Amino acid sequence: MPRARRALRRCLSACALAVASAAPAPPVRAQPPPAAAVPGAPPEPPASAPASPASPASTDEALARAKALFQEGNELRKIGDFQRALELYLRSRQIVASVPNTLNAAFCLDQLGRYDEALELYEALLTELRAELGEPERRSVASAIATLRARIGSVVVSSNVDGLVLIDGRQRGRLPLAGPIRLLPGDHTLRVVKDGWHTFERIVTVGVAETRSVDAKLDPLASTGRLKVEDERLVGADLTIDGALIGQLPWEGALAPGPHFYSVRKGNFGSAPREASVIAGQLAVATVEAGPLGEEVRVVAQPLSADLTINGVPVGKGQWRGALPLGRHTFEAHEPGYFARTLRATVDKTTRGDIVLPLAIDDAHPRWGRRVGVFRLEATGGYAFASSLESDAERSCGSYSCSGVSRPSGVLAGVRGSYEFPIGAAIELTAGYLSLHTTLDRSLDATYAAPRGGDERLPIRYSFHDDIGMAGVTVIVGGSYHYGLSSWLDVGGALGLGVVLAEMSDEVTGTASDAERTVSVAVQNAGRAVRAAAPFAMPELRLRLKLGRFSASAGLGVGFFLVDGPPLETGNTYVVGAECDEAHPTVDCAPGKKVVFEELAHGTFTMFFPNVSAGYRF
């Protein structure tokens, strides 16, 4: 079989290069070509697909499959879909590694910014496939290698054991390594694992053209337990434990006591990570739940020191790489000093690339050794009510006969901005609108002089309906203090001094009646609004729920209105449309007179304000 694979590779490479060299363009050329050649740029991939030579049936089938994958990759590369093209080139390369599919895969990796992986394939061209390259191609590949080496860094790993090295969830070889591991500049999660030893893990930061050295010292396990994983449907499936390929099913082996995560894969069938707890000196048996898999993805937390979970299963820090079953999955990242992040996503056949969970810094967390003030903006509103506005109309029930007195009620809503200091105290400014209304019915028995003259006085009953309103822009300045019961719940209080720039009115309507008739009356200036400022003080109790940068609060405020309102300038009360018959006088003959006197729009009263708020912390 190795001899057949070498024959396939020679056939594939020779045929592809023959087609490329027959074209009028340069031998190795991408389609569509770049706009301009850049000195030192990586060589452009060949556009020609490998031709099929005569060969045995099995060789022909493998070659045809490799060609088909290569051609599909070319079509995707032409439209700029380098990620999917890369996957097809790599699958073609798994069948038979050749110059065309290796070069095109390296080109796509370069375009995707994965320079370290691109460098590996370009170097493979000069080592594994050097004999199949012409001199111009060798020079072009060498130039690309020099360019990429200047863009990346590397890490040299040494250890006291011959453990397996994993970087960002990807296996990079077993110690001792032949040379440095190439890495993109930035932070990477380095792990060294070996049976019977504690896992070594560290975040390594690599700069451009920088080589870092890491001495991974592993400690032997003081005790072990055993884990058994088997499933008769998945005999021969690859088993990955704690991110490292450890064997095939059925499998049984020794592990450190504690939680471990594992997954299985057999072709396009496998499982999501699952958790198994190993107890010292005991055997744990793990179950497998497998299904059709999607493409390989990489789950990345930012920062890399964050703990990752997939479907509630901890999968280590920073990154996890693998294929997940098709369907809905939940990804979570947690790190002290950051707000936790949860992402729910559906994995299907088109899902590929990175699933990123960036965490926002919690500036108030003790981890940072500092606490800073925060600005918060909230929308707030609630139901406002009082037992009475203490207006003269309401207080007139001592001389009037009153009925149908309603409780003053309405709404107070607005926007509150606050700056909260590290100690939990805050200054606040609220701007909004207050509206309060109440109604009552009152009546008064009186007399009036008979129109014929003399001392005779006729009885009359006045009945009034008052609709008292108070509404206007409201501004509150104050302070608050919140005490944290937990990372997500505060209890606090506030005290504000406010003013309502109010319009106040009393819409008075009514009737006059005697034993014979009932007629409407009009009160002069009734309903005319007067404007005045109504100052008040309002203490408040609050309970606040914090959800990252968002918050939701519930509160109860009590507003004390401190001064009386202005008088409502009402005039005489007149019978509407009256025609007086002096021979038979009725209420139509009642003259205009002062029945409703000038009354205060409101007095000093107490308002209750249960409310809710929703806010965002900047």
TrEMBL record:
Taxonomic superkingdom: Bacteria
| InterPro entries listed in its UniProt record | OMP/PagP_B-barrel, PEGA, TPR-like_helical_dom_sf
Region: Disordered; residue ranges are 23-58
Give the signal sequence positions: 1-30
Keywords in UniProt for this one?
Signal
Residue stretches making up the PEGA domain = 153-220
Q: In which residue ranges is the amino acid composition biased (Pro residues)?
A: 24-48
Q: Where is this chain compositionally biased, Low complexity type? A: 49-58
Q: Where are the transmembrane segments?
A: none
Does this entry carry the keyword Lyase? no
The protein in question is named S-layer-like protein
Q: Which organism is it from?
A: Sorangium cellulosum (strain So ce56)
